[in-house]
Amino acid sequence: MSADARVPAAEARDRIRRFQERLRHEGVELALVRQNADLAYLAGTVQDAHLLVPARGTPLFLVRRCLDRARRESPLERIAPLAGLSRLPGILRNEGWDDVRTLGLEMDVLPARLYLHYSREVWPEAEVRDVTPLLRELRAVKSPWEVDCIRGAAAQAAEAVAAVPGVLRPGMTELELAAEVEARLRRRGHPGFFRMRGWNQEIGMGQILSGPAGAVPAWTQTPAGGEGPGPAFGQGASFRRIGRNEPVSVDIGGWDRGYLCDQTRMFVAGRLPRDLRAAFEAVRRLLEDLAARLRPGAVCGDLYRLAVETMEAAGLGDHFMGSGAERVPFVGHGLGLEVDELPLLCRDNPARLAPGMVVAVEPKLIFPGRGLVGLEDTFLVTETGAEVLTTAPREVIEV
Amino acid sequence: MSADARVPAAEARDRIRRFQERLRHEGVELALVRQNADLAYLAGTVQDAHLLVPARGTPLFLVRRCLDRARRESPLERIAPLAGLSRLPGILRNEGWDDVRTLGLEMDVLPARLYLHYSREVWPEAEVRDVTPLLRELRAVKSPWEVDCIRGAAAQAAEAVAAVPGVLRPGMTELELAAEVEARLRRRGHPGFFRMRGWNQEIGMGQILSGPAGAVPAWTQTPAGGEGPGPAFGQGASFRRIGRNEPVSVDIGGWDRGYLCDQTRMFVAGRLPRDLRAAFEAVRRLLEDLAARLRPGAVCGDLYRLAVETMEAAGLGDHFMGSGAERVPFVGHGLGLEVDELPLLCRDNPARLAPGMVVAVEPKLIFPGRGLVGLEDTFLVTETGAEVLTTAPREVIEV
After folding, report:
1. Are B281 and B355 in a shared domain?
2. Are residues A106 and A175 in the same domain?
3. B positions 173-212 inside 8 Å of A (CB)
4. Ranges for the Peptidase M24 domain (chains A, B) (predicted)?
């Protein structure tokens, strides 16, 4: 990680400027931003704070906790204390922001109780608009600085995954393997979990799964899942002992200055059975085919349909991205400050890729009772195609 | 962890029964429960699901993902698929739950967009009540099975912390020490982070802080904080190298069957300066004094006031639970499935302790530029007093 992990001031100004352009375009007079990842994006720091962004003028960052850190970490010009929610109306009156007609809120993440407070008590006359789609679309296109962060995350993940062959042995539990890999990420600065925007979505540093556990679905929006340590957290590594000759998927992400990468590689203690090896080769060809089509203008839903059709033609359609009733209808997802960003390479999505988007493509096949075989790489969409950011060779590593 | 991590069926029935009693008492006809920790509590499993609990009758657990796991893990009697939100009204009509007058929702955690969907589209005639206070009060009193889980978590934490003296050396970074401690928790089944109910509150497996970093506040509701790996996640262990003769606080929690403990112990590579050692002794006496007063009927706010007055009398009031403008007004918190449960030993809180409550008491002193000195133990309130569940000796370990 670089010595100064702060968002460069020029970049922060640009983010605000582009957000304000979108607010004006949508006719939103004032946006109140509160969620951690959105604050990291627009304020350059995560605090207990209210970021008020008018469609025109200078944003005001009202910090309840911690003001000194906000001043040290944020490139925003106007940073002031907020002693409590009850002080908000007075500040708004002083700014002339108390009688806006259209107010933007993050409606997918803002808790109901806070939504009612803002919409009934603070701005009772305002029409509330959901600014989450604006924020998610803005954040989907990464700057060179953001891509540099994601490259840093990819280097961190590569280092952690390179340790697997020296650690993996049959008889160890999934959790023991996860502990080894994750400790390497942690030493390099990973906070310990992926940030996810979706409500009730939770994940640690990834999912390390072996044999049949790789085919167990979980509640989160992932093709894999895993048993996890128990019903209260039924995903990811479990106490299951890794056997010989069964697939071990290592799906993890590094972290640098807030930004994530996402990568899946396959390992096996022994040799992968011939049919699973063939399935892996089909997945690898599909990933290469998809990578070649990641370019500006490509339609997200078309990429998903191509993946489904390719796997069906290979006789693997029943295994693609889940099995039975438990499937996920996507083959890739954006990522950055959160692991569930736009664009989503999902069924019927008419959205088009654009330069600067970063997307994890993760074709995976699920074989009930046997396991998961798949790959995942994080790509940057460039003007002319796509560049892969996660650089480990796409091989099954036999130990 | 025990072989079967499921909530016992009799216990699950009892939880539902007590929740229904409270719903009837509050005049709520039907509650819709969706948040992960509340589902873990009432359904015994975390799924993408709607749990409908009528004030009278049998609850219905509608599972969008994953139905098979819900049937395997949950002790509830009625479990059915929910193909999508659009199917909900039809199911409600069949159950006679479509025209309830009072509907209970988790208003502190339910996102605004979902709240509006339920209150405008699904139950447009219902008056919405916030059932979070009911759920939090129910969950504050633990059963013997839950206490057994927390004991398991405490054993896990004790094992991890016992490794610190063998690992700590001056010159290593906070993150390197954290990686070692956390890997031990992870091997034993910790999912990798604390669940927190408060919106925008996030934490990994704890906060391991050294010297001046221990005195840096963070946005979360903790007396400590720390620099963290950067402004996008400004809490917990950082790249700072641990020096000689400075306090190192290891604030971590174990995990067993969904339940957490919380514990803080102090270490030092070398010797703790005399004044910080004296501060530690004052904190230890305060913790012992508070522990002796943790009994049924004790008023939470009184315990906090006692702590403040004791520290003021010792000349340490300016350092208690923060410094300068950044303080937290509590000295302890409940915990279980989440780390921010009731009861809260906070300023002016008239709530009283009751048998079965589990509370982490964490008197901490912050010395800007020098660090944090404190202790934390998790206690069970019994009929006659309190039993400490975290059992490591309350010593500063000099390495």
Report:
1. yes
2. no
3. 173, 175-176, 178-180, 182-184, 186-193, 195, 199-200, 202, 204-205
4. 148-383
Q: Any idea what the CATH number is for the domain that residue B217 is in?
A: 3.90.230.10
Condensed to tens digits (0 to 9), the pLDDT of residues A122-160 reads 999 999 999 999 999 999 999 999 999 999 999 999 999
pLDDT tens for residues A57-76?
999 999 999 999 999 999 99
Kindly report, residue by residue over B137-155, the tens digit of the pLDDT: 999 999 999 999 999 999 9
Mutation target for B interface from A200, A221, A238, A339: give the one with most B CBs within 10 A.
Answer: A200
**Residues in chain B closer than 8 A to A173 (CB atoms):** 187
- By the CB < 8 Å criterion, does B122 face chain A? no
What integer is the mean pLDDT of A232-242?
A: 98
Residue B197 pLDDT exceeds 50? yes
Nearest Cβ partner for B107 among A112, A178, A229: A112
Residues of A with CB below 8 A from B75's CB? Answer: none
ipTM: 0.97
A40 to chain B: closest CA residue: B232
pLDDT at residue B92 is higher than 50: yes
User: What average pLDDT does the segment B309-334 reach?
Assistant: 96
Quick one: three-class SS letters along chain B? CCCCCCCCHHHHHHHHHHHHHHHHHHCCCEEEECCHHHHHHHCCCCCEEEEEEECCCCCEEEEEECHHHHHHHCCCCCEEECCCHHHHHHHHHHHCCCCCCEEEECCCCCEHHHHHHHHHHHCCCCEEEECHHHHHHHHHECCHHHHHHHHHHHHHHHHHHHCHHHHCCCCCEHHHHHHHHHHHHHHCCCCCCCCCCCCCCCCCCEEEEEHHHHHCECCCCCCCECCCCECCECCCCCCCECCCCCCEEEEECCEECCEECCEEEEEECCCCCHHHHHHHHHHHHHHHHHHHHCCCCCEHHHHHHHHHHHHHHCCCHHHECEECCEECCEEEEECCCCCCEEEEEECCCCCECCCCEEEEECCEEEECCCEEEECEEEEEECCCCEEECCCCCCCEEEC
Is residue A1, in this structure, part of any structural domain at all?
Answer: no
Q: What is the mean pLDDT of residues B281-288?
A: 98
Is B50 a residue whose pLDDT tops 90?
yes
Per the listing, tokens 């991205």 go with A321
Using CA atoms, how far apart are residues B361 and A28, in angstroms rounded to an integer?
Answer: 46
Number of domains in chain B: 2
**At which of A138, A168, A196 does a domain end?**
A138
Residue B109 sits at the chain A interface (C-beta within 8 Å):
yes
Predicted pLDDT at A3: 58
Which one of A138, A162, A179 terminates a domain?
A138
Instruction: List A residues 286-305 in contact with B (Cβ-Cβ < 8 A).
Output: none
The minimum CA-CA distance between A206 and chain B, rounded to whole Å, is 10
Nearest CA in chain B to A227: B69
A113–B108 C-beta distance less than 8 A: yes
Q: What is the mean pLDDT of residues B51-68?
A: 97
Q: Counting one residue from A and one from B, how many pairs have CB atoms under 8 Å apart?
A: 230
* A3 in a structural domain: no
Task: State the pLDDT at residue B224.
Answer: 87
CB spacing of A229 vs B255 below 8 angstroms: yes
Q: What is the CATH number of the domain that holds B68?
A: 3.40.350.10
Between positions 35 and 94 of A, the ones with CB within 8 A of B are 35-36, 40, 44-49, 65-69, 73-74, 81
B105–A113 C-beta distance less than 8 A: no
Query: A233 vs chain B: nearest CA distance in angstroms?
Result: 7
pLDDT tens by residue, A71-97: 999 999 999 999 999 999 999 999 999
The answer to whether residue B4 sits within a structural domain is: no
The residue range of the domain holding A215 is 141-398
